[in-house]
Amino acid sequence: MPLGTLERSAPPFFKQGPSALSRLVLYSALALFLMVADARFQLTGALRQAVATVLYPVQWLMLQPVEFIAQGSGYFQSLRTAQESADAARKQAALLSQRSSQAEQLMQENARLRQLLNLRARLETPAQAAQVLYDTADPYTRRVVVDQGQTAGVELGAPVLDETGVLGQVTRVFPFVSEVTLLIDRDQAIPVLNIRTGARGVAYGDPVAAHAGGMELRFMPANADIQEGDLLTTSGVDGVYPPGLPVAKVVRVERRADSAFARIYCAPMAAMQGARHVMLLKPAAERLPERPEPAVVPAGKKGSRK
Q1: H helices of the chain, where?
Q2: DSSP characters for 139-165?
Q3: Pairing status of strand 127-135 against strand 166-173
Q4: Which of 180, 203, 198 is nearest to 269 (CA)?
Q5: Cα(191)–Cα(183) distance, integer angstroms
């Protein structure tokens, strides 16, 4: 038979059905139909659950090495963290022991100096506990309301503290509640003392939006000896706050060549946003001794000369 007469198509015995393109179109349409039907009518939900149930033991076995490695690494990490915490605790205990010894020595020296100079011991401050009820509705002020008022003996101007420092001052007293103005309010000011240098100053609530919720130590010279991290306490010179109460910590100092004063930003020690239980103190002015009357000069000796 001549070569030109051979058929180039496959014999009927080797034909495999539809062409590859037809099968691709058919299977694509079938897959799209199944996806749409499953998304709308959840047709294969039971099948997926059955397959997941059958494959769960295999998945569990495959995950065991991974969980073993994770638990092992977590154990060693926890052991290392515990060792680091123990080392830090030992160092802190040694530091606290040293400070305790120094504090005891300073207390003894202070007692001896008071006896030597015949100084009057500092009076204890009467206090009463209160609970913060809510913040005031004025969005331009930083004030809270506590559940103690005139019936409980709260007085106008009483200092308010939490467990970490000075929170504010009582500015309004009602029969059963009182309004406390926080130190971060723009109209609030408090005399402070730098523990490191002994310099006095006045801290105000910071109204700047970029530093809202903080305080500013104003009218300090640009060359003043003040550093970040300095602790500010009440100085006691205003007759309202007892001396030595923590107020704020210096967080940033800006010195400008075109200004004679430094911009000193502070972070209050007390929890201005989350305080729940506070302590109300009696104003320090009530515990100060009365001012002596001025000496009266007799009229005959007022204009006499020797």
Answers
A1: 20-41, 45-117, 299-302
A2: TTS-EEEES--GGGT--TT-EEE-SSS
A3: unpaired
A4: 203
A5: 11
The pLDDT tens digits of the residues spanning 164-199 come to 899 999 999 999 999 999 999 988 999 999 999 999
Residue reference for tokens 């500010």 = 232
| Closest C-alpha to 238, from 290, 201, 264, 198 | 201
- 175 close to 149: Cβ distance less than 8 angstroms: yes
Cβ proximity of 251 and 213 under 8 Å: no
Q: Which residues make Cβ contacts (< 8 Å) with residue 220, sequence separation at least 6? A: 199, 201, 226, 261, 262, 264
How far apart are alpha carbons 94 and 107 in whole angstroms? 20
Residues 169, 282 contacting (CB under 8 angstroms): no
Give Cα 201 to chain centroid, integer Å.
25
CA–CA distance from 267 to each of 32, 118, 203 (Å)? 62, 38, 11
Report residue 152 as tokens. Answer: 């409980």
The hierarchical CATH code for the domain 127-287 is 2.40.10.340
- The structure's pTM equals 0.56
Q: Where along the chain do its domains lie?
A: 21-119, 127-287
- The string of pLDDT tens digits covering residues 123-172 is 467 888 899 999 988 888 899 999 999 999 999 999 999 888 999 999 99
